[in-house]
Design goal:
The protein is mainly α. It folds into two domains: about 35 residues, no CATH class; about 160 residues, no CATH class. It has a three-stranded antiparallel beta sheet, with no helix packed on it. A two-stranded antiparallel ribbon has the order 4-5. Helix 2 runs antiparallel to helix 6 and helix 2 packs parallel to helix 8. Keywords: Membrane, Transmembrane, Transmembrane helix.
Length: about 200
């Protein structure tokens, strides 16, 4: 007696359309879907994105990674020395001028405004990044709405999906963002020490 033959279905991917359309059609692993690839597409991503590391990214993802740290620049441009000198003055009239001086400082206004504008821009750039990946052939890019939870969540999810689709690469945004997070902690510590020094000078 011969042993029964085991038929293994192909893995999900783009294959020639069995109906003879000349296009590549997406095989789900169980059956044919209604999705057709344009000429040159393979494995969920186009050949160009699979052969170029730079094309795995694009400008939008780098803006998503870097933009949240832009408001921090305003912290170092505010005239904190003048503010604390007024706030710790023995003259009550001078103390009352401290918040006025702070809220009329252009750097402080930049800090406040960017705190509201930047999150909106990050969402818009993440949506643009997702649209770009779809144009390159990625069927289901990581959704931009994850930026509402955290930029870190979006960057990690987006990078992993691209890496799996392309077969390699696509993880650089994670490492850049982690580097910026570490740098942010270092800068925050230095800024705190600087502010404490200004307050000490103002008081004593």
């Amino acid at each position: 007696m011969s042993e029964p033959t085991t038929h293994v279905l192909p893995k999900p991917g783009w294959y020639p359309d069995p109906n003879g359309s000349g296009r590549r059609r997406w095989w789900t692993g169980l059956g044919w879907s209604d999705k057709y690839a344009e000429a040159g597409q393979l494995g969920g991503l186009s050949r160009s994105i699979s052969s170029s590391k730079q094309s795995l990214y694009g400008e939008w993802i780098w803006l998503v990674v870097a933009l949240p740290y832009v408001p921090m620049l305003g912290l170092f441009l505010v005239d904190w020395t003048q503010y604390f000198a007024l706030a710790t003055s023995p003259n009550p009239d001078m103390v009352e001028l401290a918040p006025v001086q702070l809220f009329t400082d252009p750097a402080y206004l930049f800090l406040l405004i960017s705190g509201f504008v930047v999150p909106v821009l990050v969402i818009a750039f993440a949506a643009a990044d997702r649209a770009r990946l779809r144009r390159l052939g990625l069927q289901q890019p990581f959704h931009w709405a994850w930026t509402l939870v955290s930029v870190l969540v979006y960057v990690i999810g987006r990078s992993v999906v691209v890496h799996q689709a392309a077969g390699r690469g696509g993880l650089a945004p994670i490492w850049v963002l982690l580097g910026l997070m570490v740098l942010n902690v270092v800068v925050a510590v230095q800024f705190t020490l600087w502010i404490l020094q200004i307050v000490y000078v103002a008081l004593f």
